[in-house]
Fold each of these.
Amino acid sequence: MNQYNMEAVAIKNADEELTWYLACHVDDIPVNGGACVLIEGRQIAIFNFTRRGEWYATDNECPHRQQMALARGLVGSQGDEPKVACPFHKKTFSLTDGRCLSDEGYQINTYPVEVRVGLVYVGLEE
């Protein structure tokens, strides 16, 4: 797990207040995979879905068994929906909205991601 001690940049997006945190360098996240970063005491899983040319961020905790493991999960697609599968019990979660695709009883948080000049930023609500 990477931990960067960087100053947050507060910006206003539409009607919600987000603080953008420098999470890591682009090279810290494996191609078509994920890694965990610690931001404000939260474990955040960041995914570089290279096949789609997209980046995602979610909670690292799988709510099924409360294990901090989603960053190590398998990234793929279910139809057009980008997803991650928990490496332990294979619960699958949408990377766009966090809903569980294999069991309606679970949900994870998702966070906006921006990549700027080789650095990955994650936006968290205040």
Note: The mean pLDDT is 90.
Amino acid sequence: MRKILLPSACISIAWTAFAADATDPVREVMAITERNWSNTDGEWVYLFDQEPLGRLFSRQFQAAYAEASKRPAYETDDGSPGDPFGYDVVTASQDGCPLEDVVVTTGSQQQGITPVKVTFKLWRCLDQPELRESVNEVHFDVMDEDGRFVIHDIHRIGPEDEDSVLAEMKQHVTETY
């Protein structure tokens, strides 16, 4: 029996790794973001801590973050390097409500990038109807790197434009203060 179970377990593990979906790293980022915004008493989980950064993001994104981190947007209480952003890069804000109506959809892969679109409502706890019903949209560029899907860039979509977190980090490095 043991001889049958071991190969079955190996096939199962191999299939799980092979069956990974381009939405997996995005879903994990969104789960972290939802937890962060759902509870003011809980500890904030930073997307760019060493472990999630190394696991969920491309090497180029990691390198750009390492360079941008040399110029933090704020000082930390414990003297460690701060974040180059000073805001949540997914919601593009410092304030917000618990995320609602989170929807993740995948586009067709083009030139090695699979676009993953996420929409959500960030302002449901406010009284202003136009804000309460507004929908945030974020696009993630996901790529296969060494046989696993990773996020290569994040784009926040505005009424008339979109931005790039990767481009923002590269610009941050070249700015003089």
Note: The beta strands are 100-106, 113-121, 136-145, 148-157.
Amino acid sequence: MNTVNPKDIADDVVVLDVREQDEYDAGHAPRAIHIPLGDLPNRLNELPEVDGDLPVVCRSGARSGRAVEWLTGQGRAVANVEGGMKQWNAEGKTIVSDSGDASII
């Protein structure tokens, strides 16, 4: 499985966030596309075209790992974000939230 460390992802890169709505609302990457893991099979056509691998993120890396395995099987070029949003936050990467409070990652 392809993986990528959050510190190696540029701030302007599109990221696929597969968490649930409340998790996404609490805080996400600036250019995240939100498609919950359970909705992914029905929303596959919504994935953006990107150069290289599309980073896939969840809270800790488990759900995004399952998404990456499935998407790879669908012929998609994707990479699991190591450590998920918890690691993203620990690396000091930019997080935006609908509430303005990204303290509950």
Note: Residues 5 and 82 are 5 Å apart (CA to CA).
